[in-house]
């Protein structure tokens, strides 16, 4: 009986050992150096005996019982399966032996803002997207294909396609297909009201589509349309029905503010009724268009505590499928009025531990807020190397603010101090 890496598993050598990724469902694992040394050898199918001999030749001693226990654990995790034929599993930085320890060797996920064009004019849009964008100044299809090849070579694992509205681009289905062929895990952020059956068929054909994220910002037309525009609510429900009927994996995301925070349970229930795979809430933050239009509707600390307790209640009951596993890990704080994990998050910026973002013109930042505030532009992907930007010395001070006990974000004020701005 031979064992090998399961189809879709990608390994990346890291300072702590191994980052493993399943490109079909977007799941990540972190393992130590010994685990990486064993797993990488299973790119080629091997029996227990063959694997043990291979390890001994490489200087690692492990008896049959220990190796069987290892194989059993990783088979249970579905990283390993019983198979005689080799598959095209990708392994990155296999021979690299010098790593920095304040971030991953490369971004694990890159958000690509393929266009700033959007037929809507949402009140809180982080990217200030609109329908009068000069697309002549944006990157074209061939540019994005070349960029994806470079991201693949750098070992990026997940691509998040955003905008603007990605599905407004005629060649977006082909771009997604190429990303799929490159074995990226794919997340698509879309609120396209003109979604059609052909696009549904094309989305269904993607093997590595982890999730589609779409918005539902109210349990009624009045609250949802406050952000998205008149008539948007009914079109949103139509879109949810299309995703559900096609059995596509989709997350419903709700942008929360003072006018809809009282509907949290109803929004979550409605998302579940329409078959959402998971539910995600995010407080509207005062940047992008919201900086001018939403200041009086931004949540205060009391609201944020209420939202946190609601998320904990959902996680504890299991009635709402929470996308963010953080809440399940914090259930012990349910009922604790002093617990405030969302403090400072409205002004939070990425610390550059996992994620990276590329604008429609190729400009590179750590996240959408830094892009909106035009803060810490790292370069342009058409001119600069991804890994050089990822290792920009300006990020050293920012990364020093990271604590593994918290989110990989920090208030903007701390970033400004770290950068001496």
TrEMBL record:
PROSITE patterns attached to this UniProt entry: RADICAL_SAM
Q: Where is the Radical SAM core domain?
A: 104-319
Q: Where are the transmembrane segments?
A: none
Keywords from the UniProt entry: Iron, Iron-sulfur, Metal-binding, S-adenosyl-L-methionine
Q: Does the keyword Oxidoreductase apply?
A: no
Residues spanning the signal sequence? none
Molecular functions per Gene Ontology? catalytic activity; iron-sulfur cluster binding; metal ion binding
InterPro entries per the UniProt record, alphabetical: 4Fe4S-binding_SPASM_dom (IPR023885), Aldolase_TIM (IPR013785), Elp3/MiaA/NifB-like_rSAM (IPR006638), Radical_SAM_PqqE_MftC-like (IPR050377), rSAM (IPR007197), rSAM_sf (IPR058240)
List, alphabetically, the Pfam families matched: Radical_SAM, SPASM
This protein is called Radical SAM core domain-containing protein
Q: Which organism is this protein's natural source?
A: bacterium (Candidatus Gribaldobacteria) CG02_land_8_20_14_3_00_41_15
């Amino acid at each position: 009986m031979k064992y090998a890496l399961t189809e879709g598993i990608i390994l990346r050598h890291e300072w702590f050992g191994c980052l493993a990724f399943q490109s079909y469902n977007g799941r990540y694992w972190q393992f130590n150096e010994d685990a990486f040394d064993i797993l990488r050898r299973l790119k080629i199918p091997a029996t227990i005996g063959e694997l043990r001999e291979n390890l001994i030749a490489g200087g690692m001693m492990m008896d049959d019982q220990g190796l069987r226990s290892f194989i059993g654990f990783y088979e249970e995790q579905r990283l390993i399966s019983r198979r005689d034929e080799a598959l095209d599993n990708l392994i990155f930085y296999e021979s690299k032996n010098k790593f920095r320890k304040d971030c991953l060797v490369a971004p694990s996920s890159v958000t690509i803002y393929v266009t700033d064009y959007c037929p809507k004019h949402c009140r809180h849009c982080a990217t200030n997207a609109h329908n009068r964008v000069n697309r002549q100044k944006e990157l074209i299809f061939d540019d994005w294909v070349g960029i994806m090849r470079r991201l693949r070579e750098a070992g990026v694992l997940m691509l998040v396609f955003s905008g603007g509205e990605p599905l407004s681009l005629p060649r977006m289905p082909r771009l997604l297909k190429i990303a799929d062929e490159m074995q990226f895990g794919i997340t698509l952020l879309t609120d396209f009201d003109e979604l059609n059956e052909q696009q549904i068929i094309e989305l269904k054909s993607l093997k590595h589509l982890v999730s589609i994220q779409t918005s539902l910002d109210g349990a009624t037309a009045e609250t949802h349309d406050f952000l998205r525009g008149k008539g948007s609510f009914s079109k949103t429900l139509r879109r949810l029905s299309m995703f559900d009927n096609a059995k596509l994996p989709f997350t419903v995301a709700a942008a929360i503010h003072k006018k809809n925070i009282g509907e949290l349970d109803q929004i979550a229930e409605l998302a579940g009724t329409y078959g959402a795979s998971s539910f995600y809430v995010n407080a509207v933050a005062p940047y992008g268009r919201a900086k001018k239009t939403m200041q009086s509707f931004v949540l205060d600390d009391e609201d944020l505590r209420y939202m946190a307790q609601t998320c904990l209640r959902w996680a504890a009951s299991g009635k709402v499928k929470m996308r963010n596993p953080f809440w399940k890990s914090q259930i012990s704080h349910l009922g604790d009025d002093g617990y405030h994990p969302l403090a400072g998050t409205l002004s939070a910026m990425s610390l550059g531990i996992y994620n990276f973002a590329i604008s429609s013109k190729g400009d590179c930042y750590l996240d959408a807020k830094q892009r909106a505030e035009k803060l810490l532009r790292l370069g342009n992907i058409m001119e600069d190397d991804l890994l050089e930007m990822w290792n920009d010395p300006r990020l050293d001070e920012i990364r020093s603010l990271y604590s593994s006990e918290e989110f990989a974000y920090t208030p903007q004020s701390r970033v400004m101090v770290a950068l001496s701005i």
